[in-house]
Specification:
By secondary structure, this protein is mainly alpha-helical. Helix content is 82%, strand content 0%.
Length: 207
C-alpha cells in the first residue's frame, strides 16, 4: 500500500509542478531543471553518444517543456516517461539531422565530381571542395538564430513548413518568411564567397 500511496503522491507532485511551469513560474522551472536535467542528459546520450550534441538536446528538451508544459497529461503516464520520450525523440531527430547534413555535403561533392573531367582531382580541387563545404557550414551558422532554426528544420530534418510552425510554435506565415529570407541570405553569402559557384552549392541545399 505504501508503494501505491507513494506513486500517487509522486503523480500529484508532478502534476502540480507542470501546472506551475505551464503558468510560466520561473521557480518551478528551475526546480524541474534541477530534478530532471540529468535524466534528460542520460536518455539523450544513450542515443547520441556525443557530449556536445547531448547538451544541445538537453537544452532543447528543457525549452520544449517550458513552452509546452500545458500539453502534459498526468493520466496518460508519469512525468518521467513523458520527459524520457521527449528526450529520446529529440535525440533521434538530431541523429537524423546529422545524417541529412552528411548527405547534403555528399550530394554537393557528387555534383562537383559530375561537372569535373574524368581524371583524378588535383590537390587544389580537393582543397576547393573542402573549402566549399566549410563555406556552406559557415553560411548556415551566420544566419540569425530564427532563420537558422527554420532552415535546419526544413533542409536538414526534412520537415514541412506546417510541421516547422508546429514544432517552434510560430505562425505559418512567420515560418515561410524566415525560410525565404534565410535562403536569400544563404544565396548571397555563398555566391559572394565562391565567386559565382554558390548556385551549385545552394542547389544541393534546396534539392
Amino acid at each position: 500500500m505504501s508503494t501505491t500511496q507513494d506513486r500517487k503522491e509522486q503523480r500529484k507532485f508532478e502534476a502540480n509542478l507542470m501546472e506551475r511551469v505551464a503558468a510560466k513560474d520561473q521557480q518551478a522551472f528551475a526546480e524541474l531543471s534541477e530534478k530532471y536535467s540529468a535524466l534528460i542528459f542520460s536518455t539523450a546520450f544513450k542515443v547520441l553518444n556525443h557530449y556536445e550534441d547531448t547538451e544541445d538536446v538537453m537544452n532543447e528538451v528543457l525549452t520544449t517543456i517550458w513552452k509546452k508544459a500545458d500539453t502534459y497529461r498526468p493520466k496518460k503516464g508519469s512525468l518521467v516517461t513523458w520527459i524520457c520520450t521527449t528526450a529520446r525523440n529529440r535525440a533521434i531527430d538530431r541523429v537524423r539531422s546529422v545524417q541529412r547534413r552528411s548527405a547534403l555535403y555528399d550530394r554537393f561533392e557528387e555534383k562537383l565530381e559530375g561537372d569535373a573531367p574524368e581524371k583524378r582531382t588535383t590537390g587544389r580541387e580537393e582543397l576547393y571542395r573542402s573549402d566549399a563545404r566549410q563555406v556552406l557550414q559557415n553560411a548556415v551558422v551566420a544566419l540569425s538564430p530564427e532563420q537558422r532554426e527554420v532552415i535546419e528544420l526544413a533542409y536538414f530534418e526534412g520537415l514541412t513548413q506546417k510541421q516547422i510552425a508546429e514544432r517552434i510554435n510560430s505562425p505559418l506565415g512567420t515560418v515561410k518568411a524566415r525560410i525565404r529570407r534565410g535562403v536569400e541570405r544563404l544565396r548571397l553569402s555563398i555566391n559572394d564567397r565562391l565567386r559565382g559557384e554558390g548556385q551549385l552549392l545552394l542547389s544541393s541545399v534546396t534539392d
